[in-house]
Amino acid sequence: xxxxxxxxxxxxxxxxxxxxxxxxxxxxxxxxxxxxxxxxxxxxxxxxxxxxxxxxxxxxxxxxxxxxxxxxxxxxxxxxxxxxxxxxxxxxxxxxxxxxxxxxxxxxxxxxxxxxxxxxxxxxxxxxxxxxxxxxxxxxxxxxxxxxxxxxxxxxxxxxxxxxxxxxx
Length: 169
Ligand SMILES: NC(=O)c1ccc[n+]([C@@H]2O[C@H](COP(=O)([O-])OP(=O)(O)OC[C@H]3O[C@@H](n4cnc5c(N)ncnc54)[C@H](OP(=O)(O)O)[C@@H]3O)[C@@H](O)[C@H]2O)c1
Description:
- This protein has about 170 residues and is of the alpha/beta class.
- It has helices at about 30-40, 45-50, 85-90, 105-110, and strands spanning about 5-10, 15-20, 40-45, 60-65, 80, 95-100, 115-120, 130, 140-150, 155-160.
- An 8-stranded mixed beta sheet has the order 5-4-3-6-1-7-10-9, with helices on both faces. The protein has a two-stranded antiparallel ribbon with strand order 2-8.
- The longest helix has 11 residues, at about 30-40.
- NADP nicotinamide-adenine-dinucleotide phosphate binds near residues 10, 49, 82 and 101.
């Protein structure tokens, strides 16, 4: 059995996830959530995300980096040239699979994702990187927590891909 594909993302209501190579919001509780949920997992991520996340290998994370730049090869870092190759590698490595973005990887994997760990930030922010529309797909929310800090209101949700016919009772 292949391991489930988990996507983890923090997204504004207008689907913005990034600006100028950085997160468009600074939410310490979300950063802690992201670090906790990705600890000990195989993290699949794009080159830009990898290059800014200096501590990606801390806490037992195994990075699978999508890139055409073979010079990024390093001990314990797995490189892949496209999403199918990255997912095959991720399946062969020990640990849960967490797809961490950016935009193109999310776009290519959302249609086949089993679970979405979504932090929905209840605001619209300017930015240049988007998460694909997910709200039209069928999900079952298995967990939710509403939260807020001095700047933002946000909701953590775990959304399971709904399969099979809807119940009629
Ligand atoms: N809010 C969040 O949860 C979240 C999550 C992730 C990222 N972000 C934000 O998003 C931005 C970074 O994301 P990004 O989309 O600009 O960049 P990215 O995906 O991190 O990196 C882009 C590079 O990765 C490689 N790549 C990505 N997708 C690929 C694919 N499907 N097939 C082959 N190669 C692929 C290519 O590398 P080469 O050029 O080396 O070939 C591409 O130039 C930042 O602002 C970051 O803060 C936010």
